Prior knowledge:
The complex is a heterodimer. By secondary structure, chain A is mainly β.
Amino acid sequence: xxxxxxxxxxxxxxxxxxxxxxxxxxxxxxxxxxxxxxxxxxxxxxxxxxxxxxxxxxxxxxxxxxxxxxxxxxxxxxxxxxxxxxxxxxxxxxxxxxxxxxxxxxxxxxxxxxxxxxxxxxxxxxxxxxxxxxxxxxxxxxxxxxxxxxxxxxxxxxxxxxxxxxxxxxxxxxxxxxxxxxxxxxxxxxxxxxxxxxxxxxxxxxxxxxxxxxxxxxxxxxxxxxxxxxxxxxxxxxxxxxx
Amino acid sequence: xxxxxxxxxxxxxxxxxxxxxxxxxxxxxxxxxxxxxxxxxxxxxxxxxxxxxxxxxxxxxxxxxxxxxxxxxxxxxxxxxxxxxxxxxxxxxxxxxxxxxxxxxxxxxxxxxxxxxxxxxxxxxxxxxxxxxxxxxxxxxxxxxxxxxxxxxxxxxxxxxxxxxxxxxxxxxxxxxxxxxxxxxxxxxxxxxxxxxxxxxxxxxxxxxxxxxxxxxxxxxxxxxxxxxxxxxxxxxxxxxxxxxxxxxxxxxxxxxxxxxxxxxxxxxxxxxxxxxxxxxxxxxxxxxxxxxxxxxxxxxxxxxxxxxxxxxxxxxxxxxxxxxxxxxxxxxxxxxxxxxxxxxxxxxxxxxxxxxxxxxxxxxxxxxxxxxxxxxxxxxxxxxxxxxxxxxxxxxxxxxxxxxxxxxxxxxxxxxxxxxxxxxxxxxxxxxxxxxxxxxxxxxxxxxxxxxxxxxxxxxxxxxxxxxxxxxxxxxxxxxxxxxxxxxxxxxxxxxxxxxxxxxxxxxxxxxxxxxxxxxxxxxxxxxxxxxxxxxxxxxxxxxxxxxxxxxxxxxxxxxxxxxxxxxx
Lengths: 243, 570
């Protein structure tokens, strides 16, 4: 990362807020579902696209370029407004906390909107409804960590989904209790997946006590709208191999 | 006392497409202050850059060994000296200065190091992995190439330099770059139409990264699509997501293929193993100190994780759709099979500097963000979250600070492995201007090196070997690169001068780093690995064989053993 300057605009500003300077612009819009229903409380994230320069296989914004990033929550009507934004092309992502809407930046593509100086750009976001994938791992013999995975927790099990021709999204380890662990991921509805279970430390059996293939099990399934998908597995012992 | 020297070598962040280049003999000049010995347990290795294996017995001047500095082209070996002769001199000079290890780039498809040459039966690089094979017993060109690799390793062993670090080429050169219409490219995340066919990158259902250009450029040695300038597609700043691993186009038709890749790496390891056979007369058996397929991984580009666990073209490594190829495991197996430590398979981390030299902050891993490259490598290997957290933010000086790594928005790798027993970070303590004082530079160096023990504690790597894999050989390379269209100057006394004491200050800061760590980095076993230098006698850059006022042509990483990079171990 090279020389960059950041301006974080996190506050929802009132619509009547006048442009303080003509050198900046405004961005406003709404977040709805495909039926046009407002999604209050959605989190809209934005980031400006700065001219960049190659640095190895990576690229970094040109020295002196401003990178503006931040987030704003939609109001009761699903609307949002941001003022004082440096003119630039912005990328937009959105998700709804505690509801299974699909973040376009994860599953599709981020939206792009140009915010001009002294004017207001408008961009609405439509979020598809997905479903929750819930995976329960019973661990009666306590071979898995007894705490929720953090970034430095030595992994003994990965849970996620594969899709397309090799894409992968990991499920978050949401809770751990005395009898096992829970994982969750929001996935699009009406799509084919492989549930991915990876462990070189423990062996797993499915709900019928059938061993799953280790170390990387791929279990196909398809999601259906409005139907959350759940799986349960049980740790049956240490893995029979070491990797 | 100040002494002068000049630098020869490939350069941090410049080791990317050099069309037509053989060995980049960039001349980097420095004025070094004599300095103290490094740390309490230190070793000195040196970066040598690319080796033109295909032309190992050809005149050096005809195959690279030249570089342009401030518009002037220099030759770095006298006319008539072969590539081998040049390297033999360099290696001897290095060993005389207490260098105990070298790092080289081994390319497979570069015109100067062409491991796969068409012999009328087996096509060359770029022909698609299905059509290429590594078969030196049946291909005279492959046999010659690996024979030259072995001869180079024998020259290293003869020079009594025990350790060899290998970075395989991330570029096959422009001759191996191919433009493909976007409509003919596909991502791992592509959906399928009613006929079961995947959508391409020009279609919404292709789910390609939003910054995918048209055309997409593919390189023989890179498993993903790129821009024309060689930058990877799907970085965080062009896309706001961390989905490059999933959304960057697949190199379906031009990639060398992982089986070929691994086979040739195995051959290179075998050549290292075969150097200096018993009874080891006048040579030392070699150790592969480090093996990496891609240097300087950076968290804004999760697609680089394909070099560790490839999800895009695993079939080229024998793993069936939609599997993930565990390249780390495969490379560890090769190291073991050749008698080397499998824990030395590693990917180096890039170091982040702030525009304000002393700026620092914690990131989502509760680590200092300057360590962000190391965090990415460790997390990608151990199945942790990678990328830039959506609830983090750039601070005023360009560091990505804060956020949490556990609340979504980050990508995770589908496989986990134990971490390597070596940490390689490329660290150039930030120097902002020529008038920075020695004290300022030492403070920044101490800050940088002080962050590393923090990372080691978080990752549980206190027993690892620490390699400062690229650091100042006497110039501000990264700053030069950061200035768009600026003339690249590698001379301390050239047009883009920098404080002459920086290498010594670099080491002094390392030695003095103990403020915030109960176990400072200088108490670890640390390998300094700066870029090679050529001695400069009178403050002006010169190429090998052309220097004024010298009785010989010296190569120096440490001013003939008396500069700041003097290790405690030889």
